[in-house]
Amino acid sequence: MSKYKKSLETTKKLVFVSLPHIQPSVIELKNFRNDEDYKTYGSIYKIEPAVRVGFRIMPVLFFVFIIMINLNCAGCPYSFTGSSVPSHLKTIGISLFDDQSNFGEAGLREKITRAITEKFVNDNTLTVTDKGKADATLEGTIERIIDKPATIASGEKVNKRRIEISIKAIYTDMVKRKKIWEKEFTNWGDYISSGSTFTQRQEGLNTAIDKISEDILLQIVSGW
Known about the structure:
Elements: E1 4-9, E2 12-17, E3 25-28, H1 35-45, H2 53-72, E4 91-94, E5 98-99, H3 108-123, E6 127-128, E7 136-149, E8 160-173, E9 178-192, H4 197-221
Parallel strand pairs: 4-6, 4-7, 5-7
Antiparallel strand pairs: 1-2, 2-3, 7-8, 8-9
């Protein structure tokens, strides 16, 4: 005979306990799911912790619950497998971003588009390809670039500045002809405004571009 067996009596679950040193006894499962009841029944029937069935059943029920959720999501329009990229999307086409910032930086739209493209190439979750052949597309507009003093403590000299970039991006599923999202991203890069200000401003701009490119990539491949 096994150490214990489960049975049903009409609509009530019962747990049959059989130990070598006692006669088989019957305990209602619903009254045997916490330490207090275990102490009560344990003192009467000399039940060992190994047969506290209530505590063993709960992990099993949780496991079944997780399986049910996965089965119910099988018909969802987007299936996630370790990331937020739908399983039917394998390639992405990235258009040259538009520049409406009036920042006056030559080649800025090409620079930002190239930085974002490199992020996707290095990540390799989606293969970058021509827009006309891609499963998904990414389009964007550089809306604002602000060069302003960085936050400083009271009384300090202002020698640190911040480049802040805002980009509106649109991510589209071309297979289902559906816009997945349209979002605005903002990030920044600091630089010291002394000596060769132009060179240092470029460092701040490059930092901001790298950060915002990473933000857009992560939003697509991880949903962050």
